[in-house]
Amino acid sequence: MKTLVFIIGLGMLLKVSLSAQGKYAQKLLSDLMENYSNALRPVEDTDKALNVTLQITLSQIKDMDERNQVLTSYLWIRQIWHDAYLKWDKDEYDGLEVIRIPSDLVWRPDIVLYNKADDESSGPADTNVVLRYNGEITWDSPAITKSSCVVDVSYFPFDYQQCNLTFGSWTYNGNQVDIAMAMDSGDLSDFVENVEWECHGMPAVKNVIMYGCCSDPYPDITFTLLLKRRSSFYIFNLLLPCIMISFLAPLSFYLPADSGEKVSLGVTVLLALTVFQLMVAESMPPSESVPLIGKYYIATMIMITASTALTIFIMNIHFCGAEAKPVPEWAKVLIIDYMSKIFFVYDVGENCTTPQSERSPFYMDDLFGNGNIYGSNNHHNDNGNYNCPQHMHHHHSNGEKKTNTLPNGNKKYHHIGRDGGEYEPNGLLNGGVKDDIPYPEKVAPYPQVCVCSRHQELVRNIEYITSCFREQRATCIKGAEWKKVAKVMDRFFMWVFFIMVFLMSILIMSKAT
């Protein structure tokens, strides 16, 4: 029971005390504002400067517009100064030391952001000020500022940016209002991490500038925001697709020429890179400074354009027809003999372990010796007829003909066919021919001149067919040589462009680091 009475008594005492403090605070405010004007600088001596202490706390980076070069940030701005006309004796007001009043009731310094980039007013909000009995006023206010920032995108997306926030009095010079720094840098203790930018510091420096219009000094405090772009997003969405597309360009040389898609692949890759280039150009400011990834895109597009042009040139070589000239001797030695081995270009059925003697040659001798279907032992005689080859005489191995005598006194000739069977003019023996074949009355020993006109015509037809086949074979060999030259050049340029893509990728990574 006693405890309950004690608690009730304590609560009533606190209530009375708070009511007393509220009464004294209202009386204090009325006494302070009785003859006070917030339009004049609150100093007792007008020749002395009023010191204002400025502290900036960076809370969040809301946006960085690289194209318009505008930084949007959320700041907490603290300003501290002494008002000579807002002092009181705390003992006269029941020990009241601090009161909070609206900021528009007191004089405030006109400190603004010099390099703001928006049309609307983005100054501190009209929050309350904290007034102490010794005349010290503390004004904490949040502000969303849009400041101009010179963006250097030379190393985009691996770039660093330095954005300045310059604060100073707009109308008072340094002899009237002097600005001091509360800290050597901005406060980052309450900074909210940004998804695109990393904050590496916010150093501050005080500048005193003499403008041409006035002889008085104008102090300002410049906070430099050090930002580093988080490049992971751009690596996975812009850089890696470009690198992978770039590695597709040399593969157009590996694609078979008969597929008809070599040029189409190069054009498709070029169009894909153009789309990525437009995406980068839309987000970058229009300046002479080309970003690093833009340079990589341009270099890759130049390389793909060159590869497409070379592909067209090589396809022209591949599809050389019968009207093409033979492959030059230097090309045979350099490209077909040496470069084909270096780049492992072989014909069908060949590989690097196939002996040289077993490889199909490009240059074949005449299929029929020196051009005669019978070889080098046959030649024309003085009468323009052909000497008969030995196998066309119907002899046995001992050089004698096998004959039989018919009842009417005529001779019956027995001949040996190709299949080994014997045949005679009037009948079939052992699988020979049945038709009558006219033979001369006498057969001279070898060599004997062929007097059969039908046989000579047959020989001429065979030689004509052989000549046509030889010309066709030579044309095919010439076309095969040009195709092999084109294939070797395809392999050569494929490796050259692979090396170029690899070196460009390494170069851009080294510059980024």
Automatic annotation (TrEMBL):
<keyword id="KW-1133">Transmembrane helix</keyword>
<dbReference type="InterPro" id="IPR018000">
    <property type="entry name" value="Neurotransmitter_ion_chnl_CS"/>
</dbReference>
<keyword id="KW-0770">Synapse</keyword>
<dbReference type="InterPro" id="IPR036734">
    <property type="entry name" value="Neur_chan_lig-bd_sf"/>
</dbReference>
<dbReference type="InterPro" id="IPR006029">
    <property type="entry name" value="Neurotrans-gated_channel_TM"/>
</dbReference>
<dbReference type="Pfam" id="PF02932">
    <property type="entry name" value="Neur_chan_memb"/>
</dbReference>
<keyword id="KW-1071">Ligand-gated ion channel</keyword>
<protein>
    <submittedName>
        <fullName>Uncharacterized protein</fullName>
    </submittedName>
</protein>
<keyword id="KW-0813">Transport</keyword>
<keyword id="KW-0472">Membrane</keyword>
<keyword id="KW-0407">Ion channel</keyword>
<feature type="transmembrane region" description="Helical">
    <location>
        <begin position="296"/>
        <end position="315"/>
    </location>
</feature>
<keyword id="KW-0812">Transmembrane</keyword>
<keyword id="KW-1015">Disulfide bond</keyword>
<keyword id="KW-0675">Receptor</keyword>
<dbReference type="InterPro" id="IPR038050">
    <property type="entry name" value="Neuro_actylchol_rec"/>
</dbReference>
<dbReference type="InterPro" id="IPR006202">
    <property type="entry name" value="Neur_chan_lig-bd"/>
</dbReference>
<keyword id="KW-0325">Glycoprotein</keyword>
<dbReference type="Pfam" id="PF02931">
    <property type="entry name" value="Neur_chan_LBD"/>
</dbReference>
<keyword id="KW-0732">Signal</keyword>
<dbReference type="InterPro" id="IPR006201">
    <property type="entry name" value="Neur_channel"/>
</dbReference>
<feature type="domain" description="Neurotransmitter-gated ion-channel ligand-binding">
    <location>
        <begin position="26"/>
        <end position="230"/>
    </location>
</feature>
<dbReference type="InterPro" id="IPR036719">
    <property type="entry name" value="Neuro-gated_channel_TM_sf"/>
</dbReference>
<keyword id="KW-0406">Ion transport</keyword>
<keyword id="KW-0628">Postsynaptic cell membrane</keyword>
<feature type="transmembrane region" description="Helical">
    <location>
        <begin position="263"/>
        <end position="281"/>
    </location>
</feature>
<feature type="transmembrane region" description="Helical">
    <location>
        <begin position="492"/>
        <end position="510"/>
    </location>
</feature>
<comment type="similarity">
    <text>Belongs to the ligand-gated ion channel (TC 1.A.9) family. Acetylcholine receptor (TC 1.A.9.1) subfamily.</text>
</comment>
<feature type="domain" description="Neurotransmitter-gated ion-channel transmembrane">
    <location>
        <begin position="238"/>
        <end position="508"/>
    </location>
</feature>
<feature type="signal peptide">
    <location>
        <begin position="1"/>
        <end position="19"/>
    </location>
</feature>
<feature type="transmembrane region" description="Helical">
    <location>
        <begin position="233"/>
        <end position="256"/>
    </location>
</feature>
<dbReference type="GO" id="GO:0045211">
    <property type="term" value="C:postsynaptic membrane"/>
</dbReference>
<dbReference type="GO" id="GO:0004888">
    <property type="term" value="F:transmembrane signaling receptor activity"/>
</dbReference>
<keyword id="KW-1003">Cell membrane</keyword>
<dbReference type="InterPro" id="IPR002394">
    <property type="entry name" value="Nicotinic_acetylcholine_rcpt"/>
</dbReference>
<dbReference type="GO" id="GO:0022848">
    <property type="term" value="F:acetylcholine-gated monoatomic cation-selective channel activity"/>
</dbReference>
